Amino acid sequence: MEPVSYTFTESEIAEIQRHLSKYPDKRSAVMPALWIAQEKFGWLSEEAIKLVADTIDIPYAHVYGVASFYTMYFKEKVPEHLIEVCTCFTCGEMGGKEMLDYVKEKIGADARGFGKDGKIWARAAECLGACDTAPVCQITNRRYVHQLTKAKVDELIAKLEKGEEIPYERIPLTDQSIIDD
Ligand code: FES
Question: Is the full-model pTM beyond 0.85?
Answer without folding.
Answer: yes
